[in-house]
Amino acid sequence: MAKTKTLTFLKDVLICSLGAYGGPESHYGVFSQQLVEKRGYLSAEELSEYIALTSLLPGPSSTQTLMAIGYQVGGRRLALWTLLVWALPVVTLMTLMSFSQTWLTRLNLDAAGLRYLAPLAVAFIVVALINLVKKSWTSPLPVVLALVSFGLSLVFRMIWLLPLLMLLGGAVMMRSRRVSIAIPWRSLKPPWWVLGVFVFIALGTALITPWTDSLLLTLFDAFYRYGYFVIGGGQVLVPYMYTGLVETFGFLDSEAFMTGFGLVQGLPGPMFSFSAYAGGMAAVGEPPLVQVSAALLSAVGIFLPAVLMIYFFYPMWAQLKAHQNIRVALQGVVAVAIGIIAATAVRLFIALPSTWDTTLMVFLVTGLMLTKKVPAPLVVLGVILIGFIFV
After folding, report:
1. Domain enclosing residue 21, as ranges
2. Based on the domain organization, do 238 and 379 belong to the same domain?
3. Fewest beta carbons less than 10 Å away: which of 105, 176, 231, 348?
């Protein structure tokens, strides 16, 4: 009976994976419909509590929410299977898309047909930015934090600056509200072994990577760090990855980066699957097996911290819910993230070709998505078709 329930749950997770387009907000609607209303695995209140928990954690928030539901239904093992079923379809597609330039050449198609995916990506970032601003700017202080982080991240492009700004934003917000973040860890009894695994991998890769020329290890190390630095989901991931992969390491150029980000907007499932495309593109020119390995290792690297975070915090969640002060810090983190995303949008827009049709596409897609009348997959498909028709 337990096995039947597990398989039924994973089938429902697969339905969510194939039907969840857009960002976390859209994903939560699918979770509510399929897992709460239709199947009754948990209550609407419990779903809201999990959303609150994962919004405080680094990593892909909707992915971690779904893992928490799997943890509740069947324990730690089912939580891991939940991640695999949820992420594997789109990770596979994004891995295949990293070979897109090779396929286009073999089919005698001009890669310039994908040229409008770059302005599409900028438009999606602008839309996400507008939605974040609507939800987060409830007082003057978040506006100030966003403007300061915008200026600093626009001028200084060191990847370590981004998490530092977010930590400072949370500290400033807590200072302004005069709250404490003290948590009684002794009474919580957290699973310290999980934290040990997390630190061991983080320190191990950070110490070994500088002494090796291994592309695979370098990619795993980079994406593992992205996985535990990012708070706020896929849109906040973009500044980290752009700064690291394009500007610091030079693994791929700006156009290839934005093409992949545009593609993932039209696919269901977690936006962190973009890591598979970016990792695969970083290994272009290597043997196909190495390119596939690079894509999959990048995806494993970025999702692994999400798994460890859920394993660490889920057993303590009932007690952590009482500490609302953490949410105050999150307001400052989100405000800083808005400034960082805005700076990235400006840098990506500047990197676009200076042509009238490219600029027009940014404004057209932004306006279309703000109306919420056309699904994201149709917008992406339309932009690709226009690109190849007018190549």
Report:
1. 2-90
2. yes
3. 105
